[in-house]
Amino acid sequence: MGDRMMTECHIACMNAFTHADATAGGPAPVFCTIVPPHVLDKLAQADDPVISGPARRTLEADSSQRTRRRLTAFRAAGPPSGAEATGKPNRTIHDCGNGTALPGRKVRGEGEEPGRDATVNRAYAGLGATFELLLKAYERDSLDGAGLPLVASVHYDREYANAFWDGEQMVFGDGDGEIFLDFTIPVDVIGHELAHGVTQYTANLTYYGQPGALNESMSDVIGSLVKQYTLGQTADQADWLIGQGLLAPRVTGVALRSMKAPGTAYDDDVLGKDPQPATMDDYVRTNQDNGGVHINSGIPNHAFYLLADRLGGKAWERAGRIWFDVLTGGELAGDADFADFARLTVSAARARFGDGAELEAVVKAWSQVGVPTP
Amino acid sequence: MHIEVRRTGGFAGIERRAEVDTSHLPDAPAWQSLVEEALSDASADPADLGVPDGFHYWITVDTRTIHCADPHLSASQRTLISRVLKEGA
User: Fold this and answer.
1) Can you give the CATH number for the domain in which A163 is found?
2) Is the distance from CB of A33 to CB of B34 less than 8 angstroms?
3) What is the full DSSP assignment across B26-78?
């Protein structure tokens, strides 16, 4: 290795925490870590250089982060692809064979029998579960409301620890095996990705800042509802976790996000601590992660949980209906902030259920997370 | 030559970072040509918001930084990112 100076860093970082305790490490750092400083101190003293190196480096506050204002909207929704609305899913699963060419080789079409690859089978089933929730609960025929074929690719790249929606299809990696397992394992992750498609065809929320966090939250809400619908769970039976089963056994954590208790999903010496806030008091200002889209989504996520918990019963029936009405109702602007969204949920609750328990519960839920609904 | 790769975003929203100093490496010329190719492919709009849940990458070579985002990476960018993030693990 000689003089090779190399650090491998799984340490989770983000900048501009609002939390005072994250500013240790230098004067006015703009780049902080989500690993608490006391944990970093401990890691930095570790005997294993693989662990101590990144921790030491992270402690050296990095102020080179540039401020980025990225306001261009995510690509506008295209027209429906000409598929006929049939009320039945039209799924195709492709296998990238650990390459990166999309969509890859077709391995399973609609109606074909399951094969030997569990990843392919999970993707196919997850697409079906999401399609069914959209149709049965919200009378929506696929992502675009017009029978859009559902396309997913699995085994993308090597040890790829992610899943994403590329504007036309879903893409799943196998995970690195060390921290993340196969991204098709949690059905809520599949529902989450497909929900990005629904958002793209409806409100098309800009993937940055508060509209971006709303975009993320809608995906978490729909993802969790797909899981609850599939399991036939009521709000009090649901785990309200996103990505349960995705973390490798060695990671100290239960999932990637918790809608019930944002900020508590994981707290691991390598992965760091779940940085999600539950209320506006802990809103995180950052220009990482597209302005914290996966961080501040904790706030609308928690509002949804509080609503569903207060209403009880099947969360997709009333709480989910209200959220879905807002997403697809045509009034939600692409640059909507939390307050805009909250106000529309109040209107939607009244329009759908009148001046009853639902309306009161919506107002209360937003109030509890610090978002006013005048 | 000092190379740093920062990967942000993704479904988990967790950042990852790694770096390598190639100055005294026996395969420094290979790194050099890989880096030159990766940087020459830098046509991506730095204001690109990427795709939902997609990774964003910032590759810094000495004083120059380029941005790229999944799934629109060139082959050399992907190779460079993968090498920097993996090696030394």
Assistant:
1) 3.10.170.10
2) no
3) TTHHHHHHHHHHHHHT--S-TT---STT-EEEEEEETTEEEEEETT---HHHH
**Domain hosting residue A38, numbered range:** 13-59
Structure tokens at B18: 């790694």
A11 contacts B89? CB cut-off 8 A: no
Q: pLDDT tens-digit profile of A234-260?
A: 999 999 999 999 999 999 999 999 999
**Residues 157-186 (A) with a CB less than 8 A from some CB of B:** 157-158, 161-167, 171, 180, 183
Check B12 against A219: CB less than 8 A apart.
Answer: no
Cβ pair B51:A73 closer than 8 A: no
Is A204 at the interface with chain B, CB within 8 A?
A: no
Give the number of C-alpha atoms closer than 13 A to the C-alpha of residue A124, restricted to the C-beta side.
20
- State which amino acid sits at residue A206: T
pLDDT tens by residue, A159-205: 999 999 999 999 999 999 999 999 999 999 999 999 999 999 999 99
Query: What CATH number is given to the structural domain containing A332?
Result: 1.10.390.10
pTM of the model: 0.82
**Tokens (6 digits) for A219:** 């995906």
Active site residues of A: 193, 294
Tokens of B83: 């090498």
DSSP H helices, chain A, are 37-44, 49-59, 118-138, 187-201, 209-231, 289-292, 298-311, 319-328, 338-353, 357-368
CB contact under 8 A, A72 and B86: no
Contacts of A271 in chain B (CB under 8 A): 14
A152 touches chain B (CB under 8 A): no
Domain that residue B59 falls in: 2-86
Q: How far apart are the first and last CA of chain B?
A: 20
Interface of B with A in 19-48 (CB under 8 A): 19-21, 23-26, 45-48
Number of structural domains chain A divides into: 3
